[in-house]
C-alpha cells in the first residue's frame, strides 16, 4: 500500500516536470520513469487472460516506455546540441531498443544513430547491429501482417524475401565479426559435470557447462547467443514465404537457420550455470594428468545481481519461436524463477500460455 502511494506521488511529480523538460531535470525525469516502469513490472503477476488478449496489451510498464521515448525525442531535438548524452540518456535509449524489439515496433529515424546517444567503439558496433535486427523484425511483421500478400505477384514477393534473406545473412555475419574482435581471455572453456544427472534440471540444461574468466564477459557472450537465436528465427520464418526459390535451396537455408538456433540455444543454456555460480572446477591432485573435476554448487543462494545479467538473454531465448520445446520450457522456467528472485513479477508470466513470442 505504501509503495503504491509513493508510486502515484512520483507519477504526479514526473508528469508536472515533463511539461517543462530542460537539461537540469531530464536525467531526473528519465530515472523516475525507469523506477515507475520497474514498479509496474514488479507488481505484475500472471492473470487469467482470454486467448485473444496479448500479454503486451496488459503491461502498464510499456506506457512508461512511451514516456521515456518522448523524453529522449525532446532531448534529441532541443537539447542535444548543447547538452551531450549522459549515461542516463544512453541507457534509457538501450531500454527503448529492447522495448521496440519485444513489441515489434518500428524505430523512428532520430533514435537510430547510436553515437549521438553516447555509444562508441565495440558498443557502437553492437548497437548498430541491434538497430538492424529491430528493423528486420519490423519488416517481418509487415510481411506476416500484409493481408494482400496472397494477392501479390509471386515474383515481387520472391524479390522482397530474397532481399530480406540477404540482409539477415549480412547481420549474422556482422554479429560473428563483432564477437571475433574480443580478446581470447574473454572466451569460455567447455567442461562436463563429473557426475551428471539425467535430463534438464534447475540451472543445468545438460551436463555441458561453460566457464568464463568474468561474469562481464559471460554477459557479452549471452547477448550474442540470444541475438543470433532471434535473428536466425526471423530469417527462418521469412524463408517460408519464398515462392520462386527451389525446394532444395529453401531446405538448405532452413536447416542452416535451425542449426544456428539450436547451437546458440545450447551455448546460452551451458552459460547459465556459470552466471549463477552453480558449479566449481578443481583439479584432481591424484590423477596423473591433473584432470578437472566439475561439481555442482547448488546449496548457496544466487546473488540477485548475477541473476540480473541473465534476464535479457533468457527473455529472448524464452520468446524465440523456433527453439526446441523442451529447451524453451527450461528457459521459461529459469526466467520465471529468476524473476521471482529479483522481485520482477512480470517474468512469472513466462510459464503461462500468454508469454510473449517473437
Task: Walk me through the structure.
The longest helix has 29 residues, at 247-275. The mean pLDDT is 87. The radius of gyration is 22 Å and the shape is globular. The protein contains 10 helices and 4 strands, in the order ααααααββααββαα. The chain is 59% helix and 6% strand. The protein has 358 residues and is mainly α. It has a two-stranded antiparallel ribbon. Strands 3-4 form a two-stranded antiparallel ribbon.
Task: Please specify the SSE layout and strand pairing.
Elements: H1 2-18, H2 26-43, H3 61-79, H4 87-103, H5 121-145, H6 154-180, E1 188-192, E2 208-212, H7 215-239, H8 247-275, E3 279-283, E4 292-296, H9 304-319, H10 325-342
Antiparallel strand pairs: 1-2, 3-4
Spatial strand order of the main sheet: 1-2
What is the alpha-carbon Rg in Å?
22 Å
How much helicity do the residues have? 55-70%
Structural class: mainly alpha
Total count of strands: 4
Count of helix runs? 10
Rounded mean pLDDT score: 87
Catalogue the unreliable spans: none
Task: Encode the helix/strand succession as letters.
Answer: HHHHHHEEHHEEHH
Largest sheet: 2 strands, antiparallel
Distance between the termini: 35 Å
Percentage of residues in DSSP E strands: 5-15%
Shape: globular
Q: Briefly, what is this?
A:
59% of the residues lie in helices and 6% in strands. With 358 residues, it is mainly alpha-helical.
Amino acid at each position: 500500500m505504501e509503495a503504491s502511494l509513493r508510486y502515484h506521488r512520483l507519477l504526479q511529480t514526473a508528469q508536472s516536470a515533463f511539461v517543462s523538460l530542460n537539461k537540469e531535470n531530464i536525467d531526473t525525469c528519465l530515472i523516475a520513469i525507469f523506477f515507475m516502469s520497474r514498479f509496474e513490472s514488479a507488481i505484475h503477476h500472471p492473470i487469467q487472460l482470454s486467448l485473444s488478449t496479448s500479454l503486451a496489451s496488459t503491461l502498464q510498464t510499456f506506457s512508461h516506455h512511451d514516456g521515456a521515448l518522448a523524453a529522449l525525442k525532446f532531448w534529441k531535438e532541443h537539447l542535444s546540441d548543447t547538452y551531450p548524452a549522459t549515461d542516463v540518456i544512453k541507457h534509457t535509449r538501450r531500454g527503448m531498443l529492447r522495448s521496440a524489439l519485444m513489441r515489434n515496433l518500428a524505430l523512428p529515424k532520430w533514435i537510430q544513430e547510436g553515437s549521438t546517444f553516447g555509444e562508441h567503439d565495440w558498443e557502437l558496433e553492437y548497437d548498430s547491429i541491434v538497430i538492424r535486427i529491430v528493423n528486420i523484425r519490423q519488416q517481418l511483421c509487415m510481411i506476416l501482417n500484409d493481408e494482400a500478400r496472397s494477392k501479390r505477384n509471386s515474383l515481387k514477393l520472391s524479390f522482397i524475401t530474397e532481399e530480406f534473406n540477404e540482409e539477415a545473412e549480412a547481420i549474422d555475419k556482422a554479429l560473428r565479426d563483432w564477437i571475433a574482435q574480443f580478446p581470447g581471455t574473454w572466451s569460455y572453456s567447455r567442461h562436463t559435470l563429473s557426475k551428471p544427472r539425467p535430463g534438464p534440471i534447475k540451472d543445468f540444461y545438460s551436463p555441458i557447462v561453460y566457464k568464463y574468466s568474468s561474469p562481464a564477459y559471460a554477459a557479452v557472450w549471452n547477448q550474442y547467443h540470444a541475438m543470433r537465436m532471434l535473428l536466425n528465427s526471423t530469417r527462418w520464418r521469412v524463408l517460408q514465404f519464398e515462392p520462386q526459390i527451389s525446394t532444395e535451396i529453401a531446405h538448405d537455408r532452413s536447416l542452416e537457420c535451425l542449426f544456428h538456433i539450436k547451437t546458440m540455444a545450447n551455448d546460452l543454456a551451458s552459460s547459465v550455470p556459470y552466471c549463477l555460480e552453480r558449479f566449481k572446477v578443481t583439479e584432481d591432485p591424484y590423477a596423473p594428468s591433473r584432470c578437472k573435476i566439475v561439481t555442482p554448487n547448488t546449496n548457496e543462494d544466487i546473488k540477485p545481481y548475477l541473476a540480473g545479467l541473465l534476464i535479457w538473454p533468457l527473455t529472448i531465448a524464452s520468446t524465440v519461436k523456433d527453439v526446441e520445446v523442451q529447451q524453451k520450457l527450461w528457459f521459461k522456467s529459469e526466467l520465471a524463477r529468476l524473476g521471482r528472485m529479483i522481485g520482477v513479477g512480470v517474468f512469472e508470466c513466462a510459464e503461462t500460455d500468454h508469454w510473449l513470442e517473437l
